[in-house]
């Protein structure tokens, strides 16, 4: 009888050990999955921020929809100043000229621009939320924008209602909230 009790106790201990290890392993796996998915979202948000900044430089305001922003990133152009100087003196500017360069080629050559509006890992079904406007700061009107993740993956972000985003509609802040 003692032998059977010992075997049952060992089996219970083994099952409890397995469940404990499995719980820790699943937490580690979940944390790694959150990190991977959030890194993909952040990468897209950084690229969209670069697109918004280029759009503002060209238009004086930020895009308030993806059609305008992505079209500009794909087909827009920007002026580049080319200054030529004397071969003898590198500090003297002799001629200044302008040249139009493609936004796509100069900034987003390696980017699949049309897919930027879609949240990673959602099979092109969930679109980032985008907004733009102007606020008054110290009697100066300043353009602002915000692009955010409408469907945060992390349970902690969902509970805190703090999705990953870049920019702000309520203050002059063009940074992301993941820093």
How would you portray this structure in words?
By secondary structure, this protein is α+β, with helices and mostly antiparallel strands. The chain has a domain of 98 residues. Helices cover 44% and strands 22% of the residues. The strands form 2 sheets. The chain has a 3-stranded antiparallel sheet with strand order 3-4-5, with helices on one face. The radius of gyration is 26 Å and the shape is elongated. The N and C termini lie far apart (62 Å).
Structural class computed from helices and strand pairing: alpha+beta
Q: What's the helix-strand series? A: HHEEHEEHE
| Span between termini | 62 Å
Query: pLDDT below 50 for ≥5 consecutive residues: which ranges?
Result: none
Spatial shape: elongated
Task: Give me a quick take on this structure.
The protein is of the alpha+beta class.
List the helices and strands and how they pair.
Layout: H1 2-59, H2 66-75, E1 77-85, E2 93-102, H3 103-107, E3 129-137, E4 140-148, H4 155-160, E5 165-167
